[in-house]
Amino acid sequence: MLGHDRIDAETYHRDIVPGLLIGAPGERAAVGLAGLEPLGMRIGDAAWTYRADGARLRIVEGVADDASCVVRLSPDAWTDLVTLLRTAAALAIAGEVRAERGSLLDLFAWEPVLRALYQGIEIYLPSGPQVRDRHGRVVDPAAELTLDHTDAQLADHFDATGVMRVRGVFSAAEIAVFEAEVDRLAAEAVPGDDRSWWAESEHGDAVLCRIVYASERSAPIAALARDPRLVRLATLLHEDLAASTDRMEGISILLKPPGRLKGLANIPWHTDCGLGGHHILCPSVAIGIQLTGSSAETGYLEAIAGSHGRTCPQPAPEAYPNLPYLTVPTEPGDVTVHVADVLHASPAPAGEGGRRTMYVTYHPPTLFEHVGPGEAVNDLIRSRTAGEVEAGLGL
Ligand SMILES: [Fe+2]
Fold it and tell me: For the chain, how are helix, strand and coil distributed in percent, rounded to 5?
């Protein structure tokens, strides 16, 4: 996978950072400073403290006494953080960032500000539950869309929301074929086969929660990559996106087993570039083909509509009324469509569970240039146990 030449932290902080601070990146970073305590970063043998100074971000050399969180990372790890090749979460999982004072959760809280400063990515701030499209019209993120809408209608909607549900894309007969294929692949999956993700039940049993590279072992599933209905929805905004079947886990199948589970069966608020590779991955479009349909009881997709292209801090439930917070219930044959970097979640089922969704993801050319066959950003997660991931993230 793509690597960057090491960025020298001392040169960067001396020669680059002052310009960033007084320019647009500094302004964008300042937006996210509320509530952040000073952060100390030790990079190799040098150190800096990042802090709010009134309404601006200020960075000074050394670790200040009042830095409530001090993290240590290698020059290579910090280079990955600056370039967004890997995020703080990815470095934490890999054990390449350590909190010497405070907790890594404090570093995660700083990350929107760091992304704004280093890469100029805006921070998403709540401005009420409304979303508007590029024509200034109010958009209902939960609108009932179908393939009968025009490309322009669908594109306007998707551009504004970054997430949408399209009803009735696949027939009951088509879904029955996919269900049979998923039954077969699920029966073949075993822990450690490098083609599946497993969670842990309360009793310590391994429970299948994801099948990856399903496109390698099923002709009907592989054919979805070129299905004209999906290609149309995936390329509404960017014509050059193409489905990946031999990398990035190919076509994958999400299973929501019932019961209380440990591990990655249910995924809290995230973006699909949440471990890194934003510049390579985005604006990928993931299409979720709903085999069982989804509801609160079986576990459905949640999203903050319109948060794509920016860094959206993790919302607390009490903030939902002031956000375009969207739940996406579906019927079998519906599809969900989301941009990789819209903030979304796959919460635990409130009831029985049992949802099944197939994901076909369409990537930009940069992905194919930098991620080879068989590679995926998620490899980092899949190769570690649930306990290791949770320990790395400080949970
Ligand atoms: Fe996701």
Answer: 30, 25, 45
Return the domain boundaries, the chain.
9-119, 131-392
Distance 329 CA to ligand 1 centre (A): 16
Per-residue confidence at 1, pLDDT binned at 50, 70, 90? Answer: very low
Are the C-beta atoms of 29 and 120 separated by less than 8 Å?
A: no
**Could you tell me if 57 and 18 are in contact, meaning their C-beta atoms sit under 8 angstroms apart?**
no
pTM, rounded to two decimals = 0.89
Give 304's strand partners. 325
DSSP string, 108-167: HHHHHHHHHHHH-PPBP----S-EE-TTS-EE-TT--B-TTS-HHHHHHHHHHHSEEEET
Tell me, in angstroms, the distance from the centre of ligand 1 to residue 179's CA: 22
Please list, residue by residue across 293-302, b when 16 or more beta carbons sit within 10 angstroms of its beta carbon and e when fewer do.
Answer: bbbeebbbbb
Nearest by Cα to 141 from 125, 126, 124, 160: 160
For helices 104-119 and 75-83, give the axis angle rounded to 10 degrees: 60
Residues 244-291: tens digit of each pLDDT = 999 999 999 999 877 777 766 677 899 998 888 888 899 999 999 999
CA of residue 283 to ligand 1 center, whole Å: 13
Q: Report how far ligand 1's centroid is from the alpha carbon of 64 (Å).
A: 37
The hierarchical CATH code for the domain 131-392 is: 2.60.120.620
Q: Cα–Cα distance between 266 and 132 in angstroms, integer?
A: 30
| CATH fold for the domain made of 9-119 | Nonspecific Lipid-transfer Protein; Chain A (3.30.1050)
Closest to 207 measured CA to CA, from 259, 251, 252:
259
Strands (E), 271-349: 285-290, 301-304, 325-328, 335-339, 344-346
Taking alpha carbons only, the member of 111, 72, 68 closest to residue 89 is 111
CA dist 69 and 37 (Å) reads: 8
